[in-house]
Amino acid sequence: MDKGNNGMNVPPLGLYIHLPWCVRKCPYCDFNSHKAEGSFDEEAYVKALFFDLDQELTGVEGRAIETVFFGGGTPSLFSGKAIDAILSGVRSRLNLLKEAEITLEANPGTFEQEKFEAFRSAGVNRLSIGVQSFQPEQLKRLGRIHGQSEALEAFRVARSIGFESINLDLMFGLPEQTLEEALMDVQTALRLLPSHISYYQLTLEPNTLFHKYPPRLPGDEKTWMIQEAAQDLLGEAGYSQYEVSAYARPLKKCRHNQSIWEFGDYLGIGAGAHGKISQPQEAIFTRTAKIKHPQHYIKAAEERKSLGSRVKIDPKDLPFEFLMNALRLRSGFQESLFEQRTGLSINMLEPLLSQSIEEGLMIRDQGRIHCSKTGFHFLDTILQRFLP
Q1: CA-to-CA distance for 263 and 231, rounded, in angstroms?
Q2: Within this chain, do residues 101 and 172 fall inside the same structural domain, yes or no?
Q3: Could you tell me which residues come within 8 angstroms of residue 148 by beta carbon, excluding any fewer than 6 positions away?
Q4: Co-location of 149 and 76 in the same domain
Q5: Does the reported pTM lie above 0.90?
Q6: How many structural domains compose the chain?
Q7: What is the pLDDT of residues 52-87, one digit of tens each?
Q8: Is 3 part of a structural domain of the chain?
Q9: First and final CA of the chain: distance in angstroms?
Q10: What does the pLDDT look like over 208-230, one tens digit per residue?
């Protein structure tokens, strides 16, 4: 691996592709997603993606793409032909490794066997299926377009096609959810034997329907009980929690997200996509953000205009930027990784690091730094200390 003059390593490089349309907007969703009705132009959007990618090539010459992640929105709304065209365009412009992890997010309500066979043929080798719950009443409350039977069938079809790596998204702390309902969701998921489970708490985010009209959510104590009991179930079934909301069977972690949490690089293309690129020789870090609305994004691409912003990370913000990602991992990070990815000395974290260790919130052991079990539950509090 190449090193800059400051000892920094060139980190792994991923590619995030945002496909922003959904059949309808869920009331809890604060992602950049838009109802497909009347605005969904697959062909124009794919052309815009290629213009976007071409603008991102400067600065990553000679670097290989190790992971690709199609996020949304609902990427599975796109045709197999479109996904194949996008990946072919990526391969013609960049060195997409043969063993690259290529993930596509999918909604059980958009599952069609022929389409997903086409995704597989195009090179997608990992699916992330947004189940959220297996309870019919909860699915209605969440505004999902699928029911329990569609979720189970989607998983069955994915397995039959040959997808070995499948993530299931599940939520807890749902409106009026009981402990029994929450554990039933986890048990149903475990019976399917997915390779990975993302298990995260429903929160009321600004600019969502749920924020404007809040549903009755379980109190903090009940939500805590649900989380603790579910984590026990997942652990007993062989799913290791390696990140705040991520649980994986052995060797089945999401490589794309793992790299980002370790302060790796990623190109971000598509409406509202974000990216982060390092230039180790100059110790420069750049964050990119693209135009959010898909119609405005497409129009800018057609007119060959700028698709977004590029902002250099201030060196004084680097420690916080690194920790904000790396401390989400159960195992934390090696001190050497901090220095390799930021070009800074680990001593930059003092005296706040020592203070957090003395308080039992963080642990430093043989060159590795991570949150304690208590600290992991108070991650926001720890991170606020390191704000510049």
Answers
A1: 26
A2: yes
A3: 134, 135, 136, 139
A4: yes
A5: yes
A6: 2
A7: 999 999 989 999 999 999 999 999 999 999 999 999
A8: no
A9: 30
A10: 999 999 999 999 999 999 999 99
